[in-house]
Amino acid sequence: MKQFLSVSDVPDINALIAKAAAHKAAPFASSHLGQHKMVINLFFNSSLRTRMSTEKAARQLGADVITYDASGGWGIEFEDGTIMNANTAEHVREAAGVLSQYCDVLCVRSFPTLTDKEADYADRIMKAFVKYASVPVVSMESATRHPLQSLTDCLTISEHRRTARPKVVLTWAPHPRRLPQCVANSFAEWMQAWGEVDLTIANPEGFDLAPAFAPKSIVSHNQAEAFAGADFIYAKNWSAYDDYGATADLPDWIIDEQKMALTNDAFFMHCLPVRRNMVVSDAVIDSPNSLVLQQANNRTWAAQAVLGSML
Ligand code: CP
C-alpha cells in the first residue's frame, strides 16, 4: 500500500483483517519491519485512541515515532498562488516535503470545516499531503473518512459474529455538538465493500449520508424497525450532509435497553469518545454486549497491519 485513505486503497480487506489479527496474536513478531524507520503522526485535531494506538503500533513494529500537534505549530497554507500575508506561515508544499525527509510513513489527522462542503468532500488537506509528500500517507481521519477505525470495526465484527452474515445497523444517535460524517461514511463504505454483512443505516429525515456512501436502498428513517433482528448496533452521531453541518435535538434516538431488546441480542459498538446518557444509556454501554473497549483495543492491531504493510 502506498497510501491508506479509504477502503479503495486496500486490495484485499480480509487479508488486511487477517494481518491485524496476526499482530494481535503476536504483537512483536514483526518488530524487524520498522527497524531504523520513522513514523510521523501529524494531528490538526484532538485524539486519544488514534494517537496512542498508532504510536503503540509503530513501536511494536520496531519503528521510532514522532507525534506533532500541528494546531500548536506554524499555520499551514493549502491554497496555491495565495499571498501569504495572514495567519499561515508555511505552505503545505514545503511542510509535506520537509516531513517526508524526516520519516518513512506520514500519518495525518484533519477534520472537516463542516461549513465548506465542497472543500471538505474534496478532502483538500489530506489530498495535499498525498500530493506533496514523497512517503506513504496514512489517514488518521480526514474530512470524509476514518479508515483506521473502519478496519478496526471489521476486525471486531469478524471476532464476534455468531452468523456468517450478520445484520449490522449503523444508527444515528443524539449529540450536543455538530460532528463530522467521517466515521459513519467510512463505516458504511467498508461494510459494503467487505460484503460479509447486511448493512442498514438508520437516521432521522434530513440526516442521510452522502449518496456515495449510503444508497437509499439501505437507509431507514425508522430506528425501531431497523433494529429488529440486528446482530450489531453501531451508534454514531453525524451532522447533516444535505443542509451541511446542521444538527437536530432528537433525544428519542438514544440507544437504550428498550431499543436493544428489539435486536437479536445485538452487540453494541461505538468508536469512542462517547457521551453517556446522550448517545447511549449507561445500562447499554456497561452491558456484557458492549464492545467499545474491544474496539479501542483493536485500533492498535489495525494500525499495525496498515503501518506494517507500508514499512
Ligand atoms: N475513535 C477515535 O478515533 O478516537 P480518538 O478521536 O480519540 O482518536
Structure in words:
There is one protein chain. The chain has eleven helices and twelve strands. The chain has two domains: 3-146 and 299-308, Rossmann fold (3-Layer(aba) Sandwich); 149-297, Aspartate/ornithine carbamoyltransferase (Rossmann fold, 3-Layer(aba) Sandwich), CATH 3.40.50. It has a five-stranded parallel beta sheet, sandwiched between helices. A five-stranded parallel beta sheet has the order 10-9-8-11-12. The protein starts with a strand and ends with a helix. With 311 residues, the chain is an alpha/beta fold. Bound molecules: phosphoric acid mono(formamide)ester. Residues 47-50, 141, 149, 271-273 line the site of phosphoric acid mono(formamide)ester.
Poorly predicted regions: none
First and last CA, distance = 10 Å
Number of domains: 2
At the fold tier of CATH, the topology name of the largest domain is Rossmann fold
- Average pLDDT figure: 97
What kind of oligomer do you see?
Answer: single chain
Our count of helices gives: 11
> Nearest-angstrom radius of gyration?
19 Å
CATH superfamily of the largest domain: Aspartate/ornithine carbamoyltransferase
Q: How many strand units?
A: 12
Strand order of the largest sheet: 1-7-6-2-3
Instruction: Give the helices and strands as they follow along the chain.
Output: EHEHEEEHEHHEHEHEEHEHEHH
Estimated helix fraction: 25-40%
Regarding CATH, which class of the largest domain?
Alpha Beta
CATH architecture of the largest domain: 3-Layer(aba) Sandwich
